[in-house]
């Protein structure tokens, strides 16, 4: 079975409930926002896979929280299919679903909205958590050295 999103994009195997009715509108929104074909297709496939995962765990649409994408990202890491931009794609998907009132808005821990820098810091923290989990799960110590050496600035010259 195919889900035809438009004349350029379709999915082999329609996305499973609970997100089936939102995948097409999500793709249209991404295109309206200027995302290219490849980026849109990657995010749509991620949403479809996420929907399948939710169905397998009997999670209903209104029961989706921000923890579910993190669990799915961990699953993708274990399967070695984590792509650059997956965390951002989940943010786009959850923001879209909240805007459509398909899922409830989560209560923030603080009454102050995050600044742009705060959102970037949170995204970087999530990125690091995924990589640290991946490294410890696979035992890739050399990757650990590469990752941390790229984060720690080196000193040049002498003082």
Number of strands: 2
Give the percentage of residues in beta strands. under 5%
Q: Which regions contain 5 or more consecutive residues with pLDDT less than 50?
A: none
| Global geometry | globular
User: Cα-atom Rg, whole angstroms?
Assistant: 18 Å
* Structural class based on helices, strands and sheet pairing: mainly alpha
H/E element order? EEHHHHHH
Strand order of the largest sheet: 1-2
Q: Averaging pLDDT over every residue, what do you get?
A: 75
Number of helices: 6
Tally of domains: 2
Give helix % range.
55-70%
The biggest beta sheet is recorded as: 2 strands, antiparallel
Distance between the termini: 67 Å
Overview of this structure, please?
Helices cover 58% and strands 4% of the residues. The termini are far apart. 16% of the residues are buried. Helix 3 packs parallel to helix 5. It is mainly α and 159 residues long. A hairpin with a 5-residue loop joins strand 1 and strand 2. The protein is built from six helices and two strands. The radius of gyration is 18 Å and the shape is globular. The mean pLDDT is 75. A two-stranded antiparallel ribbon has the order 1-2. It has two domains: 106 residues, no CATH class; 42 residues. The longest helix has 23 residues.
């Amino acid at each position: 079975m195919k889900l035809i999103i438009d004349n350029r994009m379709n999915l082999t195997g329609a996305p499973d409930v609970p997100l089936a009715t939102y995948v097409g509108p999500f793709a249209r929104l991404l295109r309206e926002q200027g995302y290219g074909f490849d980026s849109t297709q990657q995010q749509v496939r991620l949403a479809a896979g996420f929907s399948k995962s939710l169905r397998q765990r009997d999670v209903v649409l209104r029961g989706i929280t921000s923890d579910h994408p993190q669990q799915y990202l961990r699953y993708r890491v274990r399967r070695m299919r984590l792509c650059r931009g997956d965390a951002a794609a989940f943010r786009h998907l959850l923001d879209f679903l909240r805007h459509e009132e398909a899922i409830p808005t989560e209560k923030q821990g603080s009454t102050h909205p995050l600044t742009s820098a705060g959102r970037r810091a949170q995204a970087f923290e999530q990125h690091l958590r995924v990589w640290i989990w991946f490294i410890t799960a696979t035992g890739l110590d050399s990757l650990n050295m590469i990752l941390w050496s790229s984060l720690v600035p080196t000193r040049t010259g002498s003082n």
